[in-house]
Request: fold
Amino acid sequence: MKGENGVEHFVITFARGFGSGGKEIASKLAKELNIHCYENRILTLASQLSGLDENLFMAVNEKTRSSGGFSNFLKGLPRSRQYITRNEKFVSDDALFAYQKDIIENLADTESCVIVGKCADWVLRDRENVVSIYIEAPRSFCVQRTMENMGVTEETAHTTIAHADKYRAEYYTHYTNGGQWTNPVNYDMTLNSEKIGVDNCVELIKAYLQIKNLI
Reply:
């Protein structure tokens, strides 16, 4: 689609606190805009590509750029429903992040889409056709959603949220050279999903895209 300002395509990036409903908001927004929503499949593809030697990766990269980008590769990968950062400690992998960054930039070059996590707001920070969103909510709200979605106890939900948010904060700081994941200055919009509601968050973001003449 093409907005009034002549932008051929656009990207909405999402950062979110664990349990805040950010992934659900991102998915619903993408569905309503009829564009793809990418999250864990970017990590999956980056992991696969990182196993290639540099020359082979460059050949794959060149081939995908001439045939519409990495999106066809990503569409063929399964959607992960697992919370991959649930209890993991952050361990940097700069090579893997470099592949993720290349995939994100390639997607931004070739299609309108939603990208969840992966420091996408920072990777695409200098592009005019990018809108970055941060979704957060009070801990009690996140705990309740986590209990319902994961089928865990309140204690486990608290622990899961603490681990996941710590991982995301450390991940963001490392790969953005000291940036703060929760800093509202990084984003176009910061929304409280408890106060606003999931569906209203989607509507607010769509209204902002219209203000920006992207849709």
Remarks:
- The CA atoms of residues 196 and 204 lie 9 Å apart.
- DSSP finds ten helices and five strands in the chain.
